[in-house]
Design brief:
single chain; Phosphorylase Kinase, domain 1; D-amino Acid Aminotransferase, Chain A, domain 1; 5-stranded antiparallel β-sheet; 33% strand; binds uridine-5'-diphosphate
Length: 253
Amino acid sequence: MARRKKVYEGKAKILYEGPEPGTLVQYFKDDATAFNAEKRATIEGKGVLNNRLSEFFMTGLNTIGVPTHFIKRINMREQLIRAVEIIPLEVVVRNVAAGSIAKRLGIEEGTPLPRPIIEFYFKDDALGDPLVAEEHILAFGWATQQDLDDMVSLGLRVNDFLSGLFLGVGIKLVDFKIEIGRIWDGDYMRLIVADEISPDSCRLWDIETGQKLDKDVFRRDLGDLADAYTEVARRLGVMPQREPGPTKPTLIN
Ligand code: UDP
């Protein structure tokens, strides 16, 4: 049997050639990195959880008419996706000040923002993904004004959808990052949500206790990352089924 072709390997995922032209297989690794890959670890089960969680969010988005690259899950760690041309910008949407915005602007973490704030970061590991203004994006041709308008609109729709979903299970969506890709339908180009949506790319705080249920658990050494992600999956009803284990003996009078 021929070995399938690896198209790209990133920090947390691998992309393989898909079965049809225009498709790829996205494989979720257990590797976790932070601070531009200065901190690394392997967290058993993370890839399985993120595969399922990303499937759950992307399927929901597809259902409400927000286009995504997700086609179907193949197995525990892999999903079939549409191949896109990734726009070299990370789109961050924030509802509450945390992380880099809190630091950069001297805002206390946890301060609600007056409205969702959208930021763009230039995807370049060597530069540490710097924050960029629309001026830079347009001047350097990373995206057009129409792309930017579409990216803001996608970001806000994803934010509304995810915020509601998490609110329903007692979690506050503090901020998140998405990546967006171009696809062509005949002569028409469209932008769709790509990459992944998972606790690796969101900040998620328990509404009651403020407990962090996202990658900050790893970044800030706050406990077991897989436990936090499992809790998110459990609350959302993703992967509720357990492997059949030893059953308790039934007492008969
Ligand atoms: N984020 C991400 N990948 C990155 C940078 C940020 O997924 O390369 C996510 C991060 O998990 C958070 C949001 O984007 O949910 C905002 O991150 P921030 O700018 O505060 O940076 P950080 O504090 O994570 O360095």
